TrEMBL record:
Pfam families: Aminotran_3 (PF00202). The lineage of its organism: Bacteria, Pseudomonadati, Pseudomonadota, Alphaproteobacteria, Hyphomicrobiales. One of its GO terms (biological process) is L-arginine biosynthetic process. One of its GO terms (molecular function) is pyridoxal phosphate binding. It catalyses: N(2)-acetyl-L-ornithine + 2-oxoglutarate = N-acetyl-L-glutamate 5-semialdehyde + L-glutamate. May also have succinyldiaminopimelate aminotransferase activity, thus carrying out the corresponding step in lysine biosynthesis. This is Acetylornithine aminotransferase. Its EC number is 2.6.1.11. Gene3D superfamilies: Aspartate Aminotransferase, domain 1 (3.90.1150.10), Type I PLP-dependent aspartate aminotransferase-like (Major domain) (3.40.640.10). Keywords: Amino-acid biosynthesis, Aminotransferase, Arginine biosynthesis, Cytoplasm, Pyridoxal phosphate, Transferase. Pyridoxal 5'-phosphate binds at residues 91-92, 124, 209-212, 267.
């Protein structure tokens, strides 16, 4: 179906931060398949894990215990706030699952009327009908019939409006620590802490969507760690499988208490292939020094982008984001596809985003040299755009 406005490039091979097109051209991948290829392409440990599992067992369904799920859940519960994990296949499913966990919690707590969820304008939680309703983006809802009930929306960062929106039917507050698709709009640590406090004060669950910000993307395993808070429920996907489709809903035991046999499920969720890869991704990212190295590279990228903003002040309004989830908000007369296209012409891949911005998302394994190379390519791309826009 014609659902995508695709670039006319076909990639046939990937290695580390590099992708080779069928034409033989090599591109530096600073999009990471939209924050998915966290460990780059063809990471030897991931390839080995998938190959080994492929020869043993692919799928059994969730009618039986799945060893890989127990292993990955063990690692996730050791590394995070979570005590319970549900495995699925995508970010939208993880968000949808998180919404179900939050509503069900109040239902089994004797508060069945508490089912509304407060979310934020500019958010993105996926393309299922409920997650579209959660984000409330009119553009994505148009023409798809009745909008799923039970979501209220406030402006990102507006604490007063948030508290005012809380009512007797509110079950949870749901947000991304950095709005990725929405234009790399970060939530301040103070705001995140204030949201946590509001949840505690009103008996609400805090649901974080770390589908894009998680798995080391910001230099911590999960972005909320920077604020020193923990959520009650969290959706993850994207970088979790390093390119293999897998997602998960993480929760405290308390928040997940309503998720009893039969309340939720997935045929493919957490199948042995996905678990073999996700387990290895977690091992690599949680190796001592890995995230510290990401934090160092982050500095290089941020400084470089700030340099580009100064150099191209007529095109770039501001540098946004954290870690290796960075963005450039463009001036109103510059359109993100122009910059993406100019970058492609410099054999650099970056990704467009909302709020007139572009995202720069190198794989977490990018070297300082590769980051330098990407910055130089982006600088040349901006020079191209400057030439075009002044014509
Ligand atoms: C990409 C994304 C999703 C949706 O993930 P899919 O795997 O495309 O369903 C949800 N939330 C956030 C924050 C995302 O970035």
């Amino acid at each position: 179906m014609g659902t995508y406005a695709r670039q006319d490039i076909v990639f046939v091979r990937g290695e580390g931060c590099w992708l080779t097109a069928e034409t033989g051209e090599r591109y530096l991948d600073f999009g990471s398949g939209v924050a998915v290829n966290s460990l780059g392409h063809a990471h030897p440990q991931l390839v080995a894990a998938l190959k080994a599992q492929a020869e043993k067992l692919w799928h059994t369904s969730n009618l039986y215990r799945v060893e890989g799920q127990e292993t990955v859940a063990d690692k996730l519960t050791r590394l995070t706030f979570a005590e319970q994990v549900f495995f699925c296949n995508s970010g939208a499913e993880a968000c949808e699952g998180a919404i179900k966990v939050a509503r069900r919690y109040h239902y089994v707590s004797g508060d069945p009327n508490r089912q509304r969820i407060i979310a934020f304008r500019g958010a993105f939680h996926g393309r299922t009908l409920a997650t579209l309703a959660a984000a409330g983006n009119e553009k994505y809802l148009e023409g798809f019939g009745p909008t799923a009930e039970g979501f209220d929306h406030v402006d990102l960062g507006d604490l007063e409006a948030l508290e005012a929106a809380i009512g007797p039917e509110t079950a949870a507050i749901m947000l991304e620590p950095i709005q990725g698709e929405g234009g790399v709009r970060a939530v301040s640590p103070e705001f995140l802490r204030a949201v946590r406090e509001l949840c505690d004060k009103h008996g609400l669950l805090l649901v974080l969507d770390e589908v894009q910000t998680g798995m080391g993307r910001t230099g911590k395993l999960f972005a909320h760690e920077w604020a020193g808070i923990t959520p009650d429920v969290m959706a993850i996907a994207k970088g979790f499988g390093g390119g293999f489709p897998v997602g998960a809903v993480l929760a405290t035991a308390k928040a997940a208490k309503g998720m009893t046999p039969g309340t939720h499920g997935s045929t493919f969720g957490g199948n042995p292939l996905a678990m073999a890869v996700a387990s290895t991704v977690l091992d690599v990212i949680s190796e001592p020094g890995f995230l510290e190295a990401v934090q160092l590279k982050t500095l290089r990228l941020k400084q470089g982008l700030e340099g580009l903003r100064d150099q191209h002040a007529e095109l770039v309004e501001e540098v946004r984001g954290a870690g290796l989830l960075m963005g450039l908000k463009l001036k109103a007369h510059v359109a993100p596809p122009q910059v993406v296209k100019a970058a492609n012409e410099e054999e650099l891949l970056i990704v467009g985003a909302g709020d007139n911005s572009v995202r720069v998302l190198p794989p977490l394994i990018a070297t300082e040299d590769e980051i330098g190379e990407g910055l130089r390519a982006l600088s040349r791309a901006l020079t191209r755009v400057a030439r075009e826009t002044s014509r």
